Amino acid sequence: MLNDVARALVYDGWQVILPARRYVPVPIDRGEPPGRAVWLEAHWDQPEELAQRVAAALHGRSVDLLVTWLHDSYRESVSKAVEPLLSPTAPVVEVWSATGPTVVPRKPGSDVEDVEVGRSVQRILLGEVSAFDDTRALSQAEIMASVRAAVDRALEGAPSAQHEVGRRRPQPQIPRPRVHDIAGGLPRWASPAGR
Average model confidence (pLDDT) for the chain? Predict the structure, then answer.
C-alpha cells in the first residue's frame, strides 16, 4: 500500500525495509536508483519476530525514519517491538484509518502524542471520501501524496502534527417521522367488516 512512497525514498537514496504479508516489488521505472528496497515477510500478530527480522536486515544499523500503516489491533504491539531499532531522533509517520471507531491517542494540550521525547510524529488520518468530491472514495493517489508530504515534513524536522486527508462519509440528514405525537389525535375508524 505504501509502494509509491517506498519508491520515492529509494530514488532519494534511502535503504528501505518493507515488512509486509505479501511480496510486492517496488517498481523501478527511471534508471538505477541510488537506494534500495528489501522486502521482509511480516506477520503483524508476531511483533517480536518481525522486530528480529528487521534487526537482521539492518546489520547493526538503526532506523532513521519509520513509516507505518497498521491495523489498530496491531499498532501498539508492533510499535513497541520496533521502537528499540529506531535512532534517537528518527521521525515517525503513522497512517490511521478514520473510517471506523478509531480513537487516536493525544497528549493533553498537543495535536499528537509523541512516541518518545525528541521524536517527531506526523500522524495522517484517512477519511472515507475525497475532500474534493464527497461522492467518491479517497483515491490511492491522494493517500500517497499525503503520506509523501508527511514524510517530507518529518525529514525536515517539523514538530509533531496531525493531518486529516479526505473526510468521513457524510451521513444523510433525513428527518425521522414522529408518529407517537400525532397518533392520539387521529380518529378511530371502524372496520367495515364490523358494521
Answer: 82
